[in-house]
Design the sequence.
């Protein structure tokens, strides 16, 4: 099992939570980005720097992640590729993308994109806050407990 991170837009607090979880549970953690990442050197942690371009990091994750892995992304189209393949997928605010919600999330995302392209100002997500951090940490712990064999 590996944890895959769409790292280009991953909030710093989420990165820290993931690094701690990887070390505590001895789970490989892979950050994928189209720029160099400044991460502490740690066992179980690696980075993949992909070429520049739209969705290059997403494509790397989509082709590398396997059933039973966990991915962290706020990219709904990437989540829509991963979920049907059995990759547990969380957004940085702790929401689990699932078979039950991914079609609706993708539809809403596409609708909002169409509005923006037609000139409607839709605003963006609120800033990442302490509540988001707590929600992500709780969701990550819950999903890792479910995915990892009992240890001890």
Sequence:
């Amino acid at each position: 099992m590996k944890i895959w991170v769409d790292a280009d837009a991953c909030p710093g607090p989420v990165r820290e939570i993931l690094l701690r979880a990887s070390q505590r549970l001895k789970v490989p953690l892979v950050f994928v980005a189209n720029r160099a990442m400044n991460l502490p050197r740690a066992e179980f942690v690696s980075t993949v720097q992909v070429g520049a371009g739209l969705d290059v990091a997403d494509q790397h994750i989509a082709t590398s992640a396997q059933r039973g892995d966990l991915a962290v992304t706020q990219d709904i189209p990437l989540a829509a590729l991963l979920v049907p393949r059995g990759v547990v997928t969380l957004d940085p605010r702790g929401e689990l993308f699932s078979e039950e919600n991914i079609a609706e999330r993708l539809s809403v995302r596409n609708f909002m994109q169409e509005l923006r392209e037609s000139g409607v100002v839709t605003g963006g997500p609120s800033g990442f806050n302490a509540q988001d951090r707590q929600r992500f940490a709780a969701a990550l712990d819950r999903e890792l407990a479910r995915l990892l064999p009992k240890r001890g």
Summary: The helical segments are 12-25, 56-64, 76-82, 102-117, 130-147.
